[in-house]
Each structure stands twice: as C-alpha cells, then as structure tokens.
Amino acid sequence: MIDQKIPLPRHVGIIMDGNGRWATKRGLSRSMGHKAGAKALKKLCKHLLKLEIPYLSVFAFSTENFKRDKEEVDYLMNLFITMFQTEFSFLKDEQVRVVFSGRREPLPVDVLKTMDQITEETKDNERATLNVCLNYGGQSELVDATKKVVQLVQEGNLKIDELNENNFAQYLYQDLPPLDFVIRTSGEMRISNFMLWQASYAEFYFPDVLFPDFTPKEFDKAILEFQKRDRRFGGVKK
Ligand code: IPE
Ligand code: IPE
Ligand code: MG
User: Fold this and answer.
1) What residue owns the CA closest to ligand 2's atom 7?
2) Which ligand 2 atom lies nearest to the CA of residue 64?
3) pLDDT at residue 63 above 90?
4) pLDDT category, 1, cuts 50, 70, 90?
5) Nearest to 143, CA basis, from 102, 105, 98, 115
6) pLDDT at 12 exceeding the cut of 80
7) CATH number belonging to domain 11-137+178-226
8) Is 110 a known active-site residue?
9) For residue 192, which atom of ligand 2 is closest to its CA?
10) How far apart are CA 62 and CA 77, in angstroms?
11) Which residue's CA lies nearest to atom 3 of ligand 1?
C-alpha cells in the first residue's frame, strides 16, 4: 500500500520498453506486443488518476524507431490512430489534457490529424496532463528549442540575458514541470534520448518487467521505491 503522507512524484516519465520481447516470448508478432503495451498504458493512466499524479509523460515512439521494419512502424502508426480515436477517449471524460512532444515530420498525415484532434478536444482540461512523446528525441527537442530562441533574439523579441534555467522550458515542445521519477521497463538501463532537459534531477527506476506486464501493482512497487529516495538536489540534509 502506498503511504499517501510521503510525497508522490508530481511528474512521472515512463519509457515503455519491452513490448517486442514480451510478444516474442509468447510466439506472437512484435505488433501484438505493442497492442498489449497500449492496454497496459490505459490501465496505468487510470491508476495515476486515482493516485492524483498530475503529470505523466510516456515515450511512445522515438525518432530512432523509424529505423525499424516498415511493417512494425506502420502497425504502430495505425495503433496510435486507434488509441487516440477510441481507446483513449476516456481521457476526455476524465478531464485529462493530452499534449504531444516531438517533431511532426515525417509522421503520416492521418496520425497528425488524430493527434491534433485529441489535443484540441482536451486543451481546456485541468485535472491532469498526459504528454505523449511521439517521434520524439531529447536532443532534437533541445536543438528545436535553441532554434526558437535564436529566431526570437534575431527578431528582437527576446534579449539573450533574459534566458535562464527557469524560463528555458517554455521553448521546449511542452512547458511541463521537471520529471521527478523516470521508469524504464524491461531491464535496460539507459534513457535512449528521453526528455534530457526535464530529467536532470529525476530519480530513475529500472524494473525487469516488460512493459505489457507493468501493471498498476508494479507501478505501486515503483512508487514505494521512489518514496525511499533521498532527494538532495545538491544540498546537504540537516
Ligand atoms: C517499446 O518496446 C515500444 C517502442 C519502442 C515503440 P520495444 O518495441 O522496444 O520492445 P523490445 O525492446 O524490442 O522488447
Ligand atoms: C526507447 O525504446 C523508445 C521507446 C520506448 C518508445 P527503444 O527500444 O527504442 O530503445 P533502445 O533502442 O533499446 O535504446
Ligand atoms: Mg526496446
């Protein structure tokens, strides 16, 4: 049981890894692993709402994932459409704002259309925010933010000295609070270009479970671990 008196993370990031291995282990196609992963995410979203965790960022597709076979990429793109149009429509009723992080190019038009639709339909929701990192890369995000800043400076709309660590996030894909807790499933211990700026002081957790098996119960185990961490932010605990 989670002790609600010990602070919970305000912003959780999940690198949803291991769908392919989950499917292969069962003699299924990798795509079936992605389908199972989507189901697991739906359950997690509902669970986080119950826990009143206000920000969740999920890594759904990295810029590097375009290196995969066309069949798998096409399956994932279609899965995103179905998810945003049907499976995740409960987010609207639950007052969740859905936002996306990543480059639009070279995402297919129909994926972009459903992304724009769910963004528009949920933009005024204030209960919680789900940030979906899709065609996302942390380094691309920093490069794109730098370009925005340079353009504003060149146009005379921003003075270089006004830019600092506290206001830089407004030039990122989404202006979200820093990540408190980053979970990567499947036992891999790397961040694979996920939210490099936002994760600067996050606590990390690397459970061995593959993402489709990452149930609300597994999430609670992660939270118990988070609550044991001593976050010092460079200071010294008295
Ligand atoms: C994560 O699972 C989902 C995406 C990257 C889209 P993987 O597809 O990377 O699964 P593994 O790592 O091959 O098991
Ligand atoms: C990271 O997983 C990206 C997502 C979960 C969407 P990958 O499976 O693509 O990462 P690597 O290739 O193991 O670093
Ligand atoms: Mg993987």
Assistant:
1) 17
2) 9
3) yes
4) confident
5) 102
6) yes
7) 3.40.1180.10
8) no
9) 14
10) 12
11) 17
Other CB atoms within 10 A of residue 139 CB: 10
- Nearest-angstrom CA–CA distance, 11 and 124: 19
Shortest-distance Cα residue to atom 10 of ligand 2: 192
Query: Distance of CA 109 to CAs 104, 134, 190, Å?
Result: 9, 14, 31
Domain boundaries, the chain: 11-137+178-226
Q: Catalytic residue at 65?
A: yes
pTM over 0.90: yes
Nearest atom in ligand 2 to the alpha carbon of residue 16 is 5
Active-site hit among 3, 17, 116, 144: 17
